[in-house]
Amino acid sequence: xxxxxxxxxxxxxxxxxxxxxxxxxxxxxxxxxxxxxxxxxxxxxxxxxxxxxxxxxxxxxxxxxxxxxxxxxxxxxxxxxxxxxxxxxxxxxxxxxxxxxxxxxxxxxxxxxxxxxxxxxxxxxxxxxxxxxxxxxxxxxxxxxxxx
Length: 148
Hints:
Layout: H1 26-54, H2 69-90, H3 94-113, H4 122-145
Helix pairs in contact: 1-2, 1-4, 2-3, 3-4
């Protein structure tokens, strides 16, 4: 009778290793680098929104309570979602990109559909739209690199 604890070597799973010097994963490495850069950008955006909530670096007449309720709601939303996206992007987790895409789509929706909330967000939304396109392009290149 065989021991149930002993396993056959042919059926064990090897740990996943990434080799940054491998030319086989060029687009995947570029995608991960992009995600890490976007994690930093999302972190800065989240901290910026939190500074608006807490009143750090704002004029006394521009405190959080002086703004409209829609502005306050949007600011708190982006303060939270951008930091969550930053963590997920840094870890290169699948949910990180989803949260980041949600944040980008939400910011574009707020800027284009409700311009009274963030009246100066058109430039930021345009840059985020370009970054979204770059992400999709890198993700497609990375997916073609590793066919299933």
